Amino acid sequence: MATIKRLSSKGRIKNIINYVLNKEKTDDRIISGKDCSPINAIMAMNTTKNIYNKTEGITYHHIIQSFKPEEVTPEKAHRIGLELAEKQFKNHEVLIATHKDKEHIHNHLVINSVSFKDGHKLITDKASLREIKFENDKICLREHLSVIEKPYARNHYSMAEYKLAEKGLPIWKEQLRSAIDEAKEHSKNLVEIKGYLKENFNIEMKIQNKNLSYLHPDKEKYCRGDKLGGAYTKEGISSEFEKLKTPIQTNKSPTLTGIISGIEKITQKIAKDIEKETIRVQKKTFPKVITKERQKQKSMERER
């Protein structure tokens, strides 16, 4: 039984490769490379990125392929990992290292996110992960290794897409959705989305009066946006961009408004009370002052 776990990272390729090449973890250094040498894997992957100017964003994908304890030898596990890399990542450099540092044997596959063939980024979504797991299971069954029974959930896929997954075929609509989602995050309008899809995924996009259509690299016919879902139509994407342009307005809640109104009323009442008290004191004090002055004047008049 071999289980698959996939991670993606924006970190430096140098760090992850140095980890998987750790001599203490790899014992007899069961390491190999697909379309690169373990010795120059870091340089090869970074060179590919620089050639196509794809040095930002996700830099690599890391797959951990774990085997059932005592079911496979390190050498056999390594061959299975290399075969998986060759079948699933044909146009990408991959470093494969077999570790024996835990109670179970496992492979590390470090995949360059950028293709050395055309510079397109590797599509990594739930659909592509399904394909990797299906391929992994096929190899394990052929090698008389155990596999996990029914490990895949349907999630939100249509029945047609699920049938394709069961046969190990690409779920291309999910790949389109994943690529479009990433393009939306890096774009401000439909034209920029179109350019991003073409440059990074080799996906063609047609902008029509009312509709959007997409052409997957492996397909001959365009797929309309409404076949992918409301979020991938012209109206849906345009609506998302409009929301981003609309300034956020903070409205006071009824409770907060009531509290503020109450404080204002109390403040006004205090001010009025202070004003009344001042007038009252003045009325009491002022006559007394006048009276004293008047008595002084009368005394002076008597003395005269």
Structure in words:
The protein has 304 residues and is an alpha+beta fold. Helices cover 50% and strands 14% of the residues. The protein has 10 helices and 8 strands. The strands form 2 sheets. A 5-stranded antiparallel sheet has the order 1-3-5-4-2, sandwiched between helices. The chain has a 3-stranded antiparallel sheet with strand order 6-7-8, covered by helices on one side. α4 crosses α5 and α7 packs across α8. The longest helix is centred in the C-terminal third of the chain and has 50 residues.
Backbone structural class: alpha+beta
Distance N to C terminus: 128 Å
Helix amount: 40-55%
What portion of residues belong to β-strands? 5-15%
* Poorly predicted regions: 150-157, 285-290
Number of helices: 10
Q: Provide the residue-averaged pLDDT.
A: 79
Strand order of the largest sheet: 1-3-5-4-2
Q: Please give the oligomerization state of what you see.
A: single chain
Using only C-alpha atoms, the radius of gyration works out to 37 Å
The biggest beta sheet is recorded as: 5 strands, antiparallel
Give the total of beta strands.
8
* Global morphology: elongated
State the order of secondary-structure elements, H for helix, E for strand: EHHEHEHEEHHHHEEEHH
Summarize the structure.
With 304 residues, this protein is α+β, with helices and mostly antiparallel strands.
Key features?
304 residues, alpha+beta, 5-stranded antiparallel beta sheet, elongated
